[in-house]
Amino acid sequence: MTDFSATRAMFDLPEGVIYLDGNSLGPMPRAAKMRVAEVVSAEWGEMLITGWNRGWGGRGWMSMPVALGDRIGRLIGAEPGHVVVGDTLSIKVYQALASALEMVPGRKVVLSDSGNFPTDLYMANGLLTSLGHGHELRVVAPEEVEDAITDEVAVLMLTEVDYRTGRRHDMRALTAKVHAQGGLAIWDLAHSAGAFPVDVAGGGADFAVGCTYKYLNGGPGAPAFIYVAPRLADRARPALAGWLGHEAPFAFELDYRPGAGVERMRVGTPPVIQMTALDAALDVWEGVSLEDVRAKSVELSERFIAGVEAACPDLVLASPRDAAGRGSQVSFRFDEGYAVMQALIARGVIGDFRAPDIMRFGFTPLYIDEADVRAAVAILAEIMNNRLWDRPEYKRRAKVT
């Protein structure tokens, strides 16, 4: 059994804060501060450019993207050697979609849903417009996806867990259906990786992408990852042919030759300091069972839903009631949800808000427990029952909500 009291001690959480926003930005692991300071002073500071070969404990900074990819791969059910880390999630979405479309010539439809994170849709639209071959981005309601998978679809591109409501798609079933229709599947695991067991290999995913600053706690701006299934890894043509995806980047050839397997999906120079923080964050997962994480997350979420619905009748559950149908977040709707969230934050309960009316709360048992849930419900009830949210300072919108 996972010792969650031990994992809680690994995080540097401010005193008096109940942090229910790890689904947006994970808190800082204590070890990250020391490791980043070490790489800045002892490696960058002392080794200078030789750190590319000598840094990171003698393994060299240049090896970080693949090594960290394997560490993440174990958390998402990937085969060894088929995940690489680097760049941003938007870049990885673009790479995966561009490669997938080339593998299904003659088809023009990319199918997604209205619960997908807007950036994924923006990247798809931009790519399809640039291609200029009459492709269509077809967006349907989340519950309509299965019926919309037809033999017109080249690529199914979905985020497994809806960023607003926490609604969870069935990766295995939807991937099987699009394969039966001759298409490919891309899964965005931004709200999945580190939240519950993921099985990209068993689920048949062709490509998967994700960020590392949410449930993986890699820090703001932490690099993204991409998975390419073994059957496609040496066929996928990288649309973004970056120099580090070259078979021999330091040969400095003028013509591009893609590297072997997923390494061809490397683009730019590895962000060493950010990857160092991510490496420290991934240490937290040593000895942690994702099955235990999932079971505890469901327990905490169910406690929260029951408590909020009993104490705050004006709030409406926006997440699926069945825990099997949602990820590790719970969302409630309220017309003045932004103001309520600001009032909560002022009292030490940190969640976040998504327009137009959704308050989001993430439940990560690595650092959240039953006492946190009880206290958060009590504070939310006080705010709602006494209309403490109804103040001008709580209604002024900040740049980040």
Automatic annotation (TrEMBL):
Give one GO term, molecular function aspect.
pyridoxal phosphate binding
**Amino acids binding pyridoxal 5'-phosphate:** L89, S90, F117, P118, T119, D120, T159, D188, H191, Y213, W243, T269
Q: Which UniProt keywords apply?
A: Hydrolase, Pyridine nucleotide biosynthesis, Pyridoxal phosphate
Q: Where are the N6-(pyridoxal phosphate)lysine modifications?
A: K214
Q: Return any one Pfam family short name.
A: KYNU_C
The answer to whether keyword Hydrolase applies is: yes
Q: What class of enzyme is it?
A: hydrolase
Protein EC: 3.7.1.3
Pathway it works in: Amino-acid degradation; L-kynurenine degradation; L-alanine and anthranilate from L-kynurenine: step 1/1; Cofactor biosynthesis; NAD(+) biosynthesis; quinolinate from L-kynurenine: step 2/3
Query: Which Gene Ontology terms describe the biological processes this protein takes part in?
Result: anthranilate metabolic process; L-kynurenine catabolic process; L-tryptophan catabolic process to kynurenine; NAD+ biosynthetic process; quinolinate biosynthetic process
An annotated GO cellular component: cytoplasm
Catalyzed reactions per annotation: 3-hydroxy-L-kynurenine + H2O = 3-hydroxyanthranilate + L-alanine + H(+); L-kynurenine + H2O = anthranilate + L-alanine + H(+)
Q: What role does this protein play?
A: Catalyzes the cleavage of L-kynurenine (L-Kyn) and L-3-hydroxykynurenine (L-3OHKyn) into anthranilic acid (AA) and 3-hydroxyanthranilic acid (3-OHAA), respectively.
Family of the protein in this entry: Belongs to the kynureninase family.
Subunit composition?
A: Homodimer.
For this entry, the protein name equals: Kynureninase
State the organism named in the record: Jhaorihella thermophila
Lineage at the top is: Bacteria, Pseudomonadati, Pseudomonadota, Alphaproteobacteria, Rhodobacterales
- This protein's gene is called kynU
